[in-house]
Amino acid sequence: MGKPRQEIFFDKRRNMWVGKFWRLKEPGKYFPPTRDLIENYDRISKYEIDEAFVRVEKELLKQSFGSEDAEPVLFSTASELWVDSLRDAVAPRTLVEYKRGIKSWIRINGDHSVSMINTEANTSFLRERIKDGVSDATIQKDQRHLNVFFMWLYSEGLIAKEIKFRKRRVEGKQPEIYREEDLERLADLLQGHPQWMRIYMMARYAVMRSGEIWSLPLNRIDLRKRTITIGDVPALEWTVKTRTRRAIPIGKNLYPFLEKDINSRTPNERWFLDNGNGYPAYGSSWSLTQIFRRRCKQLGIVGPKPLHGIRSLGITKMLLDSGGRAELVASIAGHSVAVMLKHYARITEEDSRGVIDLL
After folding, report:
1. What gap in Å lies between CA 198 and CA 211, rounded to an integer?
2. Domain ranges (residues) in the chain
C-alpha cells in the first residue's frame, strides 16, 4: 500500500505556497489539513518554503498532540510494519486476511495517523462493509484482525491507549451438510472428470479440507501403510491449519480408488492434483471450491458450502456412528475436540426420535 506524500503546492490565483499535512489527516476525511505556508515573491527559495512547511506542521502538531515534536505514524506505514513482523509467525492465508482488513479500513477511512483511530472511524468501517454486501461473519473477522493490529500498535508504543472496538454480532449456526442422495447425484455428475472425482473422494472419504487436497503431494499417500499425511508444503507456500501435522487413515471406501488412481500416474506427476507435467493442476484451493459450486448449482443443490459440506457430512457421520468418539474423529479431521463438538455434533430428527425412545 502506497504511502501518501506530504505535498507542497503553489496556489497561482492567490500567489501563495500551500502545504498538505498528510500525517495529520483524520479518519474518514478525504483530504488532509491544508494550510497557507508563505506568500510567493520573485526570489523565494525552496529552503524558505520547506522551513515554512515545518513551522506550520509544528503548530498543527502542538494543537493536536500537545507537542510540536510529536511524530504521527500513518496507518499504512504501521500496518506494513505489523504485517512484516508476522510473515514467519502466521500462515500465508492468515496474512492475506489481515491485509484484507487493513486494505478495507484505508479504503473507507483513508490513510491517517494511527493516533487518530476512533469509534467514528469504526462506525464508518462497519457501515460501509455492510453496504458492500459483505457477510456478518466476514465483517466480524476483519474487525477481529484489526483489533489484533490495534493491540500491536499499543504494545509497540505507537498509540497511547488500548483500542478494542465491539465486533459485529454473528448468528451462531452449524455448518450445513449434504444429504446422502445429493452426494450420489453429485458423484454421478463428476464421472468422466478424473480431477473432479479425486477432489470428491478425498473430501468425502478422508474429510480433507480443500487446501489440503489442492496442496497434497503424491508421495504423502502411502498405500502400504494406508495413510495420507497432511502437513506444510513449502513448495506451494501452504501451511496446514492449526500448524499440526496429522495422518489420515485410508478407509475401505477410499483405498480401491486411490490404488487404481496412483497406479495410473505418469513418472512426471508430483501432486495429487497434477497437470501431468509435475505442476499443480489448479492455481489455488479456491478453484476447487468454484468447481463444486458450479456443479451444485447445476444440480439445484442449495445450502451446503461446496466441499466443506461434504467434509461436514463425513465428520458428522463419524461422530454419530462411532458413538461420539470425539478425540479420534478430531485427530482425523484436524480439529480440536471443543470445535468438533461445537460445530459438527448435529442431531437429525431421526436421531432425536431414537434417543427419546430410550425413555
Report:
1. 14
2. 7-65, 87-155, 180-353
Q: What is the pTM of this model?
A: 0.60
Assigned C-alpha cell, 62? 502542538
Q: What is the Cα–Cα distance from 113 to 160, expressed in whole angstroms?
A: 13
Backbone angles phi, psi at 213, to 5 degrees: -70, -45
CB 218 within 8 A of CB 270: yes
What's the rounded Cα separation, in Å, for the pair 64 and 66? 6
Q: How much is the pLDDT for 344?
A: 61
The long-range contacts involving 39-45, CB below 8 angstroms and separated by at least 24 positions, are 39/15, 40/10, 40/15, 40/16, 44/17
CATH for 180-353, options being 1.10.443.10, 1.10.10.10, 1.10.760.10, 1.20.120.790: 1.10.443.10
pLDDT at 71: 63
Query: How many CB atoms neighbour CB 39 within 10 A?
Result: 11
At a CB cut-off of 8 Å and minimum separation 6, what does 190 contact? 196, 197, 200, 295
**What is the average per-residue pLDDT within 63-90?**
80
Of the two residues 145 and 137, the one the predictor is more confident about is 145
Average pLDDT, the chain: 84
* 63 touches 51 (CB < 8 A): no
Rounded CA-CA distance 159/117 in Å is: 9
Handedness of CA 175, 178, 183, 185 (dihedral sign): negative
Order across the sheet with 227-230: list the strands: 221-222, 227-230, 246-249
User: Is the pLDDT assigned to residue 81 strictly greater than 70?
Assistant: yes
- How far from each other are the two terminal CA atoms of the chain, in whole angstroms? 64
